[in-house]
Amino acid sequence: MVHRAIHHKGRGALTNPASRFSATAGEDFDDGWDTLDWAAAEDDAAPATHLHRDPTRRVISRNESPDVPFSASINPYKGCAHGCIYCFARPTHEYLDHSSGLDFETEIYYKPDAAELFEAELRHPRYRCEAITLGANTDPYQPDDRHLGITRSILEVAHRFNQPISIITKGAHVTRDLDLIGDLAHRNLASVFVSLTSLDNGLKRHLEPRAAAPAQRLRTIEALAHAGVPTGALVAPVIPMITDAEIEHLVAAAADAGATRAGYVMLRLPHAIKHLFREWLAAHYPERAEHVMSLINQMRGGADYDSAWGTRMTGTGTYADLIAKRFALACRRTGINGKRFSLDTTAFRVPPAAGDQIGFDF
Fold first, then answer.
1. Bridge-partner residues for 110, per DSSP?
2. Furthest-apart CA atoms within the chain: distance in Å
3. What is the arithmetic mean of pLDDT over 147-158?
4. Number of helices (H) and strands (E), helices first, in the chain?
């Protein structure tokens, strides 16, 4: 049957294409159902979220990418119910035999033993302390973490070991853990980057349907900064002709809220995301879709995406250079980016394990 794009309330992807690793794939054909009221179909209930236990045996992941500013990370979840259409992590769901589309935002894997596994890795004799990033792939404060609480359990372990943690999120309930994050920050063991994409609520509802509203994210920055947490803003992704006009406003709003650092990332469209994003453009911005993709192609050597290290985050060419200059000027105007977050790795200690006895010689 014809694979049609349907707007599901609260979901970002319009379709659910097969994984590129799938052994079988469907072929579209016209089944004659052209009389179906597709406008009414769009009002159907959004696909439900399904939670799956992830049987992982290790939680600290490592990367050697030269353009990623950290080498160690923890992702408490696979998949993300925020449903951001642009999420570069979507293709990783295909390794689980799921789709990068609706599956990514509805088939969520969680790591119930993450805290225990984290502690075991920190206790390993060969472990050498380095800052660990939470949220490198999917958001540690996505909606289901409100009741699962896995991210907090990881922070509790970091707190006991004096393990430095850097958090990247667009989830407002990061403030739930402000007691732990704040205390870590006072010992120079924690920092937080809040992702800002747009200040437009209408755009946000289509672009990041289940993420916190723009005003909530700014209040989150304010709460973190007020608590003494080194706080930054990540303007990401910058989307040509969709969010690029907001760069200066986003940097200024973040600075006003208390952020002292900022970074940006250009839109990335690896693997299936290029198709999902084109569907999204056609549905929400048909009048400018061609222009948007033209600018993206100009930044990516004529393609939808170029994965080359060093340029994949920023793009190349005239348009990419203009964005870089605008962002740098916006930061200078606001005084943001004046001080780097350098977390302390010297305070790490391994506390006694539960049940350990302290001996005394008399």
1. 53, 77
2. 90
3. 98
4. 12, 10
